[in-house]
Queue: 2 jobs
Job 1
Amino acid sequence: MPAELDFLTGTATQAAKRLLGCELIRTLPGGQKVRVKIVETESYDQTDPASHTYNGPTQRNQVMFGPAGFLYVYFTYGMHYCANISAGQAGFGAGVLLRAVEPLEGQDEVEQIRGIAGVNATNGPGKLTKALQIDFDLRGHNLQLEPLELIVRPELDQSQIVTTTRIGISKAAEDLRRFYIAGNKYVSKK
DNA sequence: TGCCTGATGTTCT
DNA sequence: GAACATCAGGCAC
């Protein structure tokens, strides 16, 4: 792991905050490049009742028990994929859910894929996976490699990071584990 | 503008 | 067999 990704081996919460402002470059199956900025994240780890890793390793969540910097993809509600970046030390189940991204390049591709334009194309965990065409093919993918690369950007000032409670979960929903960039219009609603 | 609900499959119990 | 880290469309106000 390159030194610039070392922050991922800290706690999931540290990784979630540090990932804000970083970029992802997605090379689509057709060869087009889409570049997005991460604007909203959530942290999960095995001490958290809402986490998939809370009850120990299973076939599904083994990526989050592996080394940091890999993609954990899961399917939910019968029609949506969600994407996480594994964090922490190997053997400890932790990860960061990507909740919203801001398109920087390839916005036309995103709008074509999603069928809609503007903020609503990528401002939710199920939306951004569809926009970036993330599915089980990318489960366990190394984020240092194509077709989905994590690009580290300078750390944001703490004053730009907003910390709130999580959304759309039933357990430990009051935990302050959701983070987003202050004032960014691509952050999900509620 | 805001609540309610249907869609729909993987995963774990 | 039930839960689920969601989304979008419809209808009421």
Job 2
Amino acid sequence: MARVRPLPRSFFARPPEVVAPELLGVVLLHGARGGRIIEVEAYGDHDDPASHAHRGRTARNSSMFGPPGHLYVYRSYGIHWCANVVAHQEGRAGAVLVRALAPERDVEAMHEARGRPRRPVDVANGPGKLCQALGIGGEHDGADLCDASSPVRLVVDGTDVAAPPLVGPRIGISRAADEPLRFSVPGDPHRSRPW
DNA sequence: ATAGAGATTGCCT
DNA sequence: GGCAATCTCTATA
């Protein structure tokens, strides 16, 4: 396998809809566990009615307004955790929701974290599922994804993914539901649902 | 103060 | 396909 390297901070200092498709194929790691990003969604600033940042800064979404290249973790439906990559231009807010991973490293531990027998394809094919598989929770909110010493981080290893990405509307939202801000690797069985 | 919706998931029929 | 689980925030009073 090619040598891995972190992404530079400048990679994340661009609009989330620009960063999102480029995160496909990037590896998300927590300790020894890791998987390749297969599906993402972009969420913007006050101008995006579906974004947590739409109504301004709160205790929950504070990380969306912080420095790019960090993690934004929030609780979904009071039960699950969802992981986002903070991405925005100077003075703005925004993030990219990681919706699905293809498990690659320490896959055994990811299965154990999910509990019960699972089909391999179901281990990380959803935003809540991948956080459970990797062991990502609220304590990781704000983690620096560019820092090699951070518990949660992003790396690239030179592996190519199919391009161009598949583009479609975001899932599970009611506002701005027609915007083409969801991106995935065409044909990958680890996506969160059929296209 | 209270009610309702939400970037989800798993188990039920 | 229906529905419960139960945290955070917004709207309304």
